[in-house]
Design a protein that fits this description.
22 strands; 500 residues; 30% helix
């Protein structure tokens, strides 16, 4: 009697010469003997950098700057700051993240007591509710008080000087290291609606009662990704040119926890030499190499000394590398192949690109990745750089590939080894994504969905999922086009899709 088996083992499925994306494959359910809340998602970004959740924001100039990075750290993940800026500006972003302990990024305006406020431009037409008053009108000067937008509006005479109506700063200053709970207690104790956090006598943030209430309305934050010094963990991207060595020096002084070598094709002499340089000069700093999609690419960078590998080539929603250059690999196959060899050396894998939903995250992690790096999934959020606009009645934010011509003019062309070429060839596009709200809200819900996926697989942790896959216990199948249609919403005249 022949043995009836379900599906294929991962080894058999991914060795048939096909390049599979996440949507091409489906896991078959396994046995459940634990509740959803028993699923644990702690992981590692690199050899020495632990995370509470397997989420990383991509180093793109429409995805990760200070606000995104500190919010990702507050959630237990990490943000990688983009390098499409002057090295001093990128280092300033690092310091901005390190100087905060709450997932807020205010941009306070400073005035001196003798100044006058003639119009509401200074309040950004209501978007910035407070103006801080210091002795000289500079952030580093002694804080004297504040002016609330609501108080200024009531003034009959807008020509009076600020000191005539400002609120004294007595009992409104807290150390920068104060967490949300301490700020909330302070406001309640002092009867204040606003507080200022200060570091080295310089104002870091102004926090309003409405800010605290808004964050309290999101799912409860955990411990977050905190370094040995008590500050948020943050990473930064650099290239592989000589000038990037100077950039790295600035970033290290600013306090980065990990550096990511940003290249669309990481298996190059330039990256290998940069890896060796960093390991020699900054032995305590973890280095993430990439991007790679093959076993041989991964082996070269592992031998050079990387502490983590970034996997993906042409799988991002705004990336056209596969179309323009005819190179790349389906992301599911790439993650599985690279993770198979990287695991032998204890090098964590970051699945970069192709993430559109929680199911894709489950697939990436189960196929061997330790974390997922997301661009479009986080773009359009409150924390993403850029201002909201309206397009056909929808609230949107710009989202562009770092290989787009628009981004290349800012310097990202070196990521595609094209900074010395006379003719620039785009490997990405400029687009827009809908307003998603705050990552502080939708990322926790996404992680809960990931936990439910792991429960269906019978895996209580990432390591458990990897073990079940390698042992052949977890089985997979390839989905036909019809099966993919059937696996999504279908057969309805209209519907509203809400994930949470």
């Amino acid at each position: 009697m022949s043995i009836i088996e379900d599906g294929f083992s991962s080894d058999r499925l991914f060795n048939q010469g096909y390049s599979y994306t996440y949507d091409d494959v489906i896991f078959l359910p396994h046995y459940i003997d634990f509740p959803t809340d028993a699923v644990l998602l702690p992981t590692k970004l690199s050899r020495r950098l632990p995370l509470s959740i397997p989420c990383v924001s991509s180093p793109m100039d429409t995805v990760t700057e200070s606000h995104m990075a500190l919010s990702m750290a507050a959630l237990g993940g990490i943000g990688i700051l983009h390098s499409n800026a002057a090295s001093s500006d990128q280092a300033a972003m690092v310091r901005s993240v390190k100087a905060r302990r709450v997932p807020l990024l205010s941009t306070p305006v400073f005035k001196s007591p003798g100044d006058r406020i003639h119009n509401d431009d200074v309040f950004d037409h209501g978007a910035n509710p407070y103006v801080l008053v210091t002795e000289s009108g500079a952030p580093s000067s002694k804080l004297l008080g504040y002016v609330a937008s609501r108080d200024w509006v009531k003034l009959a005479d807008k020509e009076v000087k600020i000191y005539d109506y400002m609120v004294s700063c007595k009992d409104m200053v807290l150390p920068w290291s104060s967490d949300l709970g301490k700020i909330e207690e302070f406001m309640a104790e002092k009867g204040r609606d606003v507080a200022a956090t200060v570091r080295d006598d310089e104002v870091v943030d102004v926090v309003g009662k409405e800010d605290v209430e808004r964050i309290r309305g999101y799912p409860k934050l955990g411990v977050g990704s905190i370094g040995p010094d008590g500050s948020w963990r943050v990473g930064a991207a650099i290239g592989t040119r000589e000038s990037d060595k100077e950039r790295l020096e600035e970033l290290v002084k600013a306090g980065i926890d990990v550096v990511v070598l940003d290249s669309s094709q990481g298996n190059s002499i330039y990256q290998i030499e940069m890896i060796k340089y960093i390991k020699k000069m900054y032995s305590d700093l973890d280095v993430v190499g990439g991007n790679v999609v093959t076993v041989s690419q991964a082996q070269n960078l592992i031998q050079a000394g990387v502490d983590g590998l970034r996997v993906g080539m042409g799988s991002g929603s705004i990336c056209t590398t596969q179309e323009v250059c005819a190179v790349g690999r389906g992301q599911a196959t790439a993650v599985y192949k690279v993770a198979s060899v990287a695991s032998q050396s204890g090098v964590p894998v970051i699945a970069d690109g192709g993430i559109s939903n929680s199911g894709h995250i489950v697939k990436a992690l189960t196929l061997g990745a330790s974390t997922v790096m997301m661009g479009s999934f986080l773009a359009g959020s409150t924390e993403a750089p850029g201002a909201y606009e309206y397009q056909n009645g929808r609230r949107i934010k710009k989202y562009r590939g770092m290989g787009s011509l628009e981004a290349m003019t800012k310097g990202s062309d070196q990521r595609y080894l094209g900074d010395t070429a006379k003719l620039k060839i785009a490997q990405g596009v400029v687009g827009a994504v809908a307003d998603k709200g705050s990552v502080l809200k939708f990322v926790p819900y996404t992680m809960q969905a990931v936990k439910q996926g792991f429960q269906d697989l019978g895996a209580s942790s990432l390591q458990s999922a990897h073990d079940l896959l390698r042992s052949g216990v977890l089985r997979l199948e390839v989905r036909t086009g019809a099966a993919q249609v059937e696996g999504g919403v279908h057969g309805l005249v209209s519907y509203e899709k809400k994930s949470f």
